Amino acid sequence: xxxxxxxxxxxxxxxxxxxxxxxxxxxxxxxxxxxxxxxxxxxxxxxxxxxxxxxxxxxxxxxxxxxxxxxxxxxxxxxxxxxxxxxxxxxxxxxxxxxxxxxxxxxxxxxxxxxxxxxxxxxxxxxxxxxxxxxxxxxxxxxxxxxxxxxxxxxxxxxxxxxxxxxxxxxxxxxxxxxxxxxxxxxxxxxxxxxxxxxxxxxxxxxxxxxxxxxxxxxxxxxxxxxxxxxxxxxxxxxxxxxxxxxxxxxxxxxxxxxxxxxxxxxxxxxxxxxxxxxxx
Length: 281
Description:
Blueprint: E1 2-8, E2 13-20, E3 25-29, H1 36-44, E4 48-53, H2 65-72, E5 75-79, E6 96-99, E7 104-107, E8 110-116, E9 125-131, E10 141-145, E11 148-149, E12 152-153, H3 158-161, H4 169-184, E13 191-194, E14 212-213, H5 214-220, H6 273-277
Parallel strand pairs: 3-4, 4-5, 5-6, 10-13
Antiparallel strand pairs: 1-2, 2-3, 7-8, 8-9, 9-10, 11-12, 13-14
């Protein structure tokens, strides 16, 4: 198995390529707007990039999922969790599989098991990775997206603060608490691969280290009341204000369920100006 880490410091965004070297295929987890880095890595490692897996609908950057589907025919593995209004409206335009809690899919000999981990957003999922090709029958790690970070946990208030969806912060916090309780049940040895690092507005006080373990985060992930798995009542009031560079509504985010036929390459949202300025549109 091959695992490659990509980091965009301007957005504090982490993405990953997982490759099965036996089958010579690869998937990108939470791809950023600049897809050339993944295509170049796949070529360098003699892998065919066949899929994209997304942990949730992103509000702070334009996902590269649609462009990878356009360019190389990558199959999209996206969440079918959450209420009806939280769906990937563009998925039907491409080869895709809607995934739910308890489901799984294979990339070569590598198994991805799906966990529904809402709180940051209603449809958020995490992926447990098991390297069956390497002889493993238990997972090695978990791609947590914006659920659990190194030293932090995903913010449950951003739908209300950034998208103007009233009365979603408190229910999001309750969902986040339940997701954190579920995280507590995972084996301590699992590696944690989050979608953001220090400087991201998706959490509070994110660490600069690129990965962690479930056991370490259980012990030391700080929140107002201790670790995320020890929260009794998630404290929203202690969070910083929503980043001013984010769009006031996800309806203008081409990577969101509210895309409504928008095209990322024609109309990049304001919160992606830094990244779009560095990439071809």
